[in-house]
Amino acid sequence: MSGPEPDDDRDELIRELAAAGDRLLRDPALVRPDGTPYDAALLERMQGWAAAQPVAAQDATPDALDQHRELRIAVLVAMREELLRARSDGLYSSEALESALAVLDAEQISIELRGRR
Hints:
Layout: H1 6-26, H2 40-46, H3 62-89, H4 94-115
């Protein structure tokens, strides 16, 4: 009997990483770097896979954009921590781990490039 298929392994890992990000967004202790709370509506919109969606045009104030960027980076940090845990546990193939890391790297580069505008 063989182990899980590489795509199944990767998909399961991606689900675990997304769950780590979602847990962070649901944490009542989550605050901005300056200690102020995040906008509750923004937190709610970002839960689940919606974290990848941009801020709606009507909500695109400088503060809303900053909060969105901060939260996306915080989610990526939580996902990277989960990836490191998964790697140390040895539950996933190196192929699945590398694939997930590439996704996280690409997302972080995208956020950083948009933040420089």
